[in-house]
Design brief:
9 helices; alpha/beta; seven-stranded parallel sheet; Rossmann fold; Dehydrogenase
Length: 241
């Protein structure tokens, strides 16, 4: 049974990815600061296919210790989905110094350390492995939330660089969703902005966490074994680029 790490596992895209990965036969290590959400998953799936890891990725000590501690119990792990992230949806002028540090840490620094620590260990096996990062169209076309957009643009750059750094054994790709329905972020966006997102989409089936999870799991698996360093948009055809 292949093992897969999913961060931000308790809700939204992360939760949908956990569900789909387990359905496809993976053992999932789910990490999140939401202990209650992880407990729901643990009780639903059991220890045979799911391991909960309470982790706050705004804490650098947690970030630096996360992968090393996993490898004290797991000899090898097949894949890593870097999904945990923050979104505030506000002007750059409204950010405090603490919030700037926090979003840079959760949305970018965590990915740097988790990715390199994972790849360093798995490259020694000289066998195919996979990292999937979660960015956003905000990282490609910009965002009114400058810090969010900047971190997601950096995730795309990190993905492309690490595709080279971790070759030939660890593939690194990134999923870039547009507005996702049925998430906490969706509820924070003003109605007029949601209407504008919808207007720009040429496909009208609302994007939901499960739709993004399908793309994540496609990239994780062997079907995309010839692809690395790629940005895969999930945006209903909006923002042609």
């Amino acid at each position: 049974m292949k093992k897969l790490i999913v961060t931000g596992a308790a809700n939204g895209i992360g939760r949908a990815t956990v569900d789909m990965a387990i359905q496809q036969g993976y053992f999932v290590i789910g990490a999140d600061k939401d202990a209650e959400g992880l407990d729901v998953l643990q009780r639903l799936y059991g220890a045979e296919v799911f391991e909960a890891q309470i982790a706050d990725f705004s804490d650098m000590a947690v970030i630096k210790g996360f992968i090393p501690k996993l490898y004290e119990r797991h000899a090898t792990i097949y894949g890593l989905v870097n999904n945990a992230g923050l979104y505030h949806g506000k002007s750059v002028y409204a950010y405090s110094d603490e919030q700037i540090d926090e979003i840079l840490t959760v949305n970018l620094k965590a990915l740097v350390y988790l990715s390199k620590d994972f790849a360093e260990r798995e490259m020694t096996h000289e066998a195919p492995r996979s990292i999937v990062n979660i960015a956003s169209v905000a990282g490609e076309v910009g965002s009114c939330d400058a810090l969010y957009g900047a971190t997601k643009a950096a995730v795309i750059g990190l993905t492309k660089a690490n595709a080279w750094n971790f070759a030939p054994f660890v593939r690194v790709n990134v999923v870039s969703p547009a507005l996702i329905h049925d998430t906490a972020i969706y509820d924070t966006i003003p109605e007029y902005r949601r209407a504008e997102y919808a207007r720009q989409e040429v496909l009208k089936d609302p994007i939901r966490p499960g739709g993004v999870a399908e793309v994540i799991m496609l990239l994780v698996g062997d079907a995309m074994r010839h692809s690395t360093g790629r940005v895969i948009s999930v945006d209903n055809g909006a923002y042609p680029r």
